[in-house]
Structures are given as structure tokens and as C-alpha cells.
Amino acid sequence: MAKPVYQSGDSIKEFSRFGPVFMLGAGQTTLLICLPAIVEETGLGYGLLTAMVALGTCLFIFTSPVWGRISDRFGRRKVVQAGLFGFATSFLLLAFALHGLSSGLLGKELAIGLMFLARILYGLLVSGLYPAVQAWVIDDSEDSNRMRSLSRITASINAGRFIGPVIPAVLIDQGSLFPVLALVILAIPLLIQVSILTTDKPLEVKQEKNSEEKKQFRQMLKSLWPVLLVACSVTTLFGLLQYLIGPILQERFSFDGVSASRVLSMLMMVAAFSTVVTHLLVSRFAQGRLILSLKVGSILLLVGSFLMITATLLICLIFGLVICAASIALLTPAYTTLASEQVDQQGVLTGTLSMIHTLGYTLGAILAGLGGSLGIQLAEVFCIFLAVLLLMISFLLVESPKRRNC
Hints:
Layout (H helix, E strand, L loop, with lengths): L10 H32 L3 H29 L1 H28 L4 H18 L3 H11 L6 H18 L2 H6 L5 H19 L14 H44 L3 H30 L3 H21 L3 H27 L5 H29 L1 H21 L4 H5 L1
Helix pairs in contact: 1-3, 1-5, 1-6, 1-8, 2-3, 2-4, 2-5, 2-13, 3-4, 3-5, 3-8, 5-6, 5-13, 6-10, 6-12, 9-10, 9-11, 9-12, 9-13, 9-14, 10-12, 11-12, 11-14, 13-14
């Protein structure tokens, strides 16, 4: 295992790593909540806008591993810079398109084209931000505190998801343009700070041929496939649950569309808050108990999922969501730490994990859509199946690196 190349304890550097992750979470929730207002202001179809948002997210699947390799070769800071530049530029283009369409400055086709261009830039550049920060933190962590450091990343992105709904709540009365511009204004100073950072340096990685890199990648998949399967199962299940909350609120609790959206935004804030609290309470306990954390998190996710899909009272739905969110805060740093202890190329690993996370959420959306077409009960069956599968993998297939090397 390569030695850390960064020195810990620098508060400015810490903010430069966790701040961009916070912005990533805030951008996700802010844009999601702004979509109904954008539909009303522009007259564009909701399906078109959701396809635009999904395009940027889907590109993560293809570009995250590439950025991981780039960060291994040229350093983490440059990739974080590229991610923040892409974040600010994409939302600035989106804001310009919204203003141009509402003011008549741009035609409908040109405005839509700019919106899709903004999301393509987002998918191409921002996809490297999260894996680069993960690898940066791994580089700067000793084995004894690695999981605690990684859990801070999970807490940071969920803190962003928690604060994100506050931005449109305060500014949406002025129009959807203002929350979007607020994200740009917040991202630019962070980009400047990361750009003037001088403590980062490229990693000293030997230049290898493509065939050798592919061989190492295959070896990584061969040794880590149970952990990677856990990552895919967790994100698929949680993504499916998030997509199901809206239909559950409407069908089971008789909320109309607008009311369901309002309740959903509050529930997402509760979920994000739960992950932050879980990080604060259990990060010390989980450190050094990775396998136990994985098993406990799997059990909690099964219990929370069951409560959510069977809830007949809103309080039960909320309680189930809190348990699920807490389990994610426990599971994500646990399986990331397990994987990082078995490989040297941390950028490749974190890029692969980011790709798997995006793939998982995409699968969750597909399963939710299939369940919506054939009946919500089918989607609920998918939830239980995924939760049981995750439990079996955690208990039967995942081993401690020390045990594996014996």
C-alpha cells in the first residue's frame, strides 16, 4: 500500500475537500426541487426536464472511472478543480437558458439545447469530483482512521442534500433562476480556494501500458466483487426506495401531486439529517469493525425498507426512512474502507465505486418505473429481494482483508 502523500490537520485543506462534496449534494436536491417551478415558468414538459437531469447523471457511469485514473496520475486537486469548474459552468449555462427562455431572448429549441449542454458538461466534469475527494481522503488517512475519514465524506454530501432544499425554499418565490444562480455563487469561491491550494502534488505512479492497467483492473474486480456487489445492492435499493416514496404518499396517504412534492422535500431533509447524526454517533464505533458495521447496516436497511413499504401511518414511513438513511451512513464508508485496504490504485477504485453508485441509482429508477407500470406491489417485492440479497452477501461473501490474507 502506498504511503499517504498529504499531511492531515490543515483546516483549509479539509474544507477544500469536503466543501465540494457538500456542493454536490446541495446541487442535486436544489435542482430536483426546482423542476416543478421550471416546468411552470417555461412550459417545458416534465418528462423532457427529467430526461435532461438524468442525462448528466448517467454520464457518471462512463466518466467516473476515467477521472479516477487521471487523479492517480496527476493528483486529486486538479480533478476537484475540474469538477467545481464543471459544476459552476453547468449551472451558469442552465441559468442563462432559463433567463433566455423566460425573457424571449432565446428561442425554445436553443434554450433546450443549452440545458442539455449544461447537463452534458455536468456529467463529463463533475463526475470526477466525488471519487477524487474519496481518493484524496484515503491518501491522507492512516489505516486506523480511514473509515472515520470516509464517513465524513458521506456526512458532507448528505449535509449538502439537507441544506439544498433550503436554497429554493428561500429564493423560489423570485423564480427558479435565483436558486440556480445561488449554486453558481457558492461554487465560485470554493473553486478559487481549491485553485490556490499549494499542498497537493501529483502521485508518483509508474506509467503502465494499457494492457497492464486492464489486467490490474480485472484483478481488482476479481478480488473485490463481493464488496462491489454490496455497493451496487445498497445504492439500487436506496434509489428504488427514494423513487417509491412519491407514489406511496399519493396512493396510500392520498396526497395530491403538489402536496406529495412538499412532503417529499421534507422527508429528504430528514433522511439527510439522519445520515449526518449517524456519522457523528457511530463513526468511532465503526472504525476497526468494518465487517460488523456491514452486517449491522444490512440488517438495518432490511428493517427500514420493510417499514417503509408496509407503512399505513406516515410516522411509520418516516421512521423507516430514518433507519434506511442511517444504514446508508454506516454501510457506505464500511464497504469503501474494506475495498481501499485491498488495492493500491485508490483513484481507480473510487472511480469504479462512483460508477457503481450511479449504476445502482439508475437500476433503482428502472425498477421503480417498472413497478409503476405493473403495480407498486411489484416494486415493493423488488425492495425486499434487494434487502435480503444484501444481507446474504454481507454475511456469507464479504471477508475481512486480514482473514483473506491468512
